[in-house]
Every structure is written in C-alpha cells, then in structure tokens.
Design brief:
Radius of gyration: 22 Å
Distance between the termini: 82 Å
Shape: globular
Largest sheet: 5 strands, antiparallel
Strand order of the largest sheet: 1-2-3-4-5
Strand content: 15-25%
Helix content: 55-70%
Order of helices and strands: HHHHHEEEEEHH
Length: 199
Amino acid sequence: MSLFRRVIPSLTLAVFLAALSPTPAWAGPDAEQFIKDKQGELTTLLKRGKATGQDGQVAKVFDTMLDYQTLAQDSLNEHWSELSDQQKKEFSDILKRLVQRAYRHSLDKTLGYDVSYRGHVEKDSGTLVQTQASNRTNNREEPISIDYLLRDAGGQWLVVDIVTEGSSLVKSYRSQFNRIIKKEGFDALVRRMKAKLDS
C-alpha cells in the first residue's frame, strides 16, 4: 500500500474523532485573567482622575464584565417569577445603577492598594476568582479579600456575584429585598432603591 493510501484513512479517522470530541465553545481568557484584564482597565481609568467622559468609559467596562440580569434574578430569588416584564425591566435597570455605584465606590477606596490574585475555585454556582487587596502605606491594616464569582455566558465570562470579606453582594441584597417585599411590597422596594440612588 502506498504512503498516500495509508495517510488518507488516518486523516479521515482523525477528523471523525475530532468531530466527536467535545471542544470548548470559545478560546477566551480564563476567569482569573479576565478579572485581571478588567480590573486593569478600570484602575487605569480611575487613576486619570475626573477626566472628560471617564464615567461613561467606566460604565462601559462594567457592562462588559457584570451580568446584570443574573444579579437581578438571584437577588430577588423566588420573587422574580412574580413580576411582570415591565417590573423586571424597571428593577433590573435600577439595580444595575446601584451595583455600578457600589462597585465604583469600592474601586475608588482600593486605588491605593496592591491587589494579588490567589487563583480560582470551581463551584457549582460558577468559578470563584480569589483576590486580596493590601494597603500600600499601612502594613498593619489587614488585607481585604475580594472574590468574584463568574460564569461562562455563551462565550464570555461575566461576574454574577462579588464576595467581600466573605459577604456576598447577592445574598446581602436578597436578604434586604426579601424583607422589604414581604413587609411592604415590591413597589415599596423600588421606591427605596430609587431614593438610594438619589441620596
């Protein structure tokens, strides 16, 4: 048998096996690198100070890394299914602005900190990227742990929760929102969230 005849069946078999083998849906950065890249973009923008258009640029980076829809659903938990489409949209829009403001505030506070990346842990709920922020000028201050829970959303990593010193942003929201809804109703929650934005 000639070499040509031997190679063709081998290539055919290889192609067939490759078609059967599971392949990753995308070849983007791993979860830890994704957070490093996004945090780097945000830090660079914030260190420029109050430059023209900075707020809009920061918001755009947030939009590429935060899964607002999942944050909204998870923070309302069982109450989400009780809402109309219009209520879901209104709630999601308000929560998006609250999360952006909280995240921006946290970033502003840690600009003078060195952030170290401590690997990631696979969980049922997603991939947890672990980081630690240490004060550059005060060695006596205890480092702050800030972890990011990510999921692969159709070819892109997105953050679905932020855990600071063991405290989950989503669980904290869920507890507050559930208490208000049960006591005062959903409309009262929306009013309180709007008031928080205006304060």
